[in-house]
Amino acid sequence: MYTKGILRISTQQRFSRKYVSNANTKQRKISPWYSFVKQWEWSVPVGVGVSLLAVLQWRHLRRYPYRTEDNSMYEPINILVVNCYYYLPLRIISRIWGWIASLELPVALRPTLYGLYAKAFNANLDEIDLSLSDFPSLVDFFVRPLKSDARPIDANTNIVSPADGRVVYFGPVTSCRVEQVKGVTYNLRHFLGDLHILPAVNTRNFTKEDDDAYVKSLLTNPTNQLYQLTVYLAPGDYHRFHSSTDWEIEFRRHFQGKLLSVNPKIVQYLPDLFSINERVLYVGKWAGGFMAYTAVGATNVGSIKVYCDKELHTNTIMWPEAKNWKDASLGCAHIRKGELFGEFRMGSTIVLLFEAPENFQFCVNLEQPIKMGQALAECAVGSEEKQRAHSL
User: Could you confirm whether 272 is annotated as catalytic?
Assistant: First the structure.
């Protein structure tokens, strides 16, 4: 969508005074202002009007979010705003920004530029393992390595935070409408893909009325519960992500969706955003049972890189509409707790969906800052079962 007006100018008449004859062949002098207004013709594409409407309505939406009672959709006037936002060329913008951020900067300017960026977004430069001059581009600074002791891995639990960021949501998953942020949901079946083609679970086909059965079918133990943790990575955060636990990855699923912003201030107005955006989903098993680890793409995310998945390519040319996702087997790759898993080339979100006993208790709070390696539970999941089996 082009939002730039196209200005056509009559070069023969530009910046000159004209005389035109009337019916009586008399001449009158036209003022410079009149000449300017009449000679400059504006041709404005429809995109300008739509974009202007989107901006005006977005401001209105921020002040008056007219949600329906179930918080799943908006009134028609606000649906128009959302649709305008959906159709902005965010993928093109993200690829251009990714290219700009990858440009090599002069060595002499790097400490100053990175220092200004760190000050603007509260990035902690004391944790960095290298000199600021060693990062060729802004993207390299984004995925900066930290000192070896900067992120200790909690040894008292077997599930820890996968990344630095802020806890946007956590809690049990009781239906297919899962919390995206407080009061706004996304569809779990759309997020993971239809159940009958998930190789890790039962092959039964479900209708829309069977959403509860869909959630239950993900569990390896019917007495367990499915839980979720969502961590948002802000621009100043450490942008590498790690494994939350010791687990076996059975397969990867890549959804090439949109690249809408995942900033919580935006997410609260866009239901189903997590199931619309581009995302990379890794499915496997851990000590508690089912595990789904998802890296969600966002606006200006140049790419998502996963170190054990060399065939993964994100933010590329769009696939045909008929192909919703691509699957790949990783041969049951074993990933250890705290092990470096991948990186975001700009900020985004990690969503963990995992199975655990019904008495599982998170030891984090909503909206709290969190660091990679910080405990999500006070004790190890599955330890009681192992001790009971050992005693028998």
Answer: no
Using an 8 Å Cβ cutoff, are 98 and 300 in contact? yes
Is residue 242 classed as helix, strand or coil in its secondary structure? strand
Active site residue 334: no
Q: Which residue in 164, 239, 303, 309 is the catalytic one?
A: 164
DSSP 122: T
Beta bridge partners of 252: 282, 328
> Quick one: pLDDT at residue 332?
62
Of 223, 169, 243, 246, nearest to 360 by C-alpha is: 223
- Identify the active-site residue in 154, 237, 239, 242: 242
Q: Specify the amino acid at residue 45.
A: P
Contact criterion met (CB below 8 Å) for 223 and 360: no
Q: What is the pLDDT of residues 289-340, one digit of tens each?
A: 999 999 998 877 668 889 988 888 887 776 666 566 777 877 668 999 999 9
| 348 is annotated as an active-site residue | yes
SS3 378: coil
From 243, 244, 303, 348, active-site residue: 348
3-state secondary structure of 124: coil
Rounded Cα–Cα distance for residues 102 and 121 (Å): 19
Residues in the chain: 392
Give the integer Cα–Cα distance in Å for 347 and 326: 23
Q: Return the DSSP state at 246.
A: S
242-261 burial, b if ≥16 CB within 10 A, otherwise e?
bbbbebebbbbbbbbbbbbb
Which residues face 67 on adjacent strands? 74
> Mean pLDDT for the chain?
75
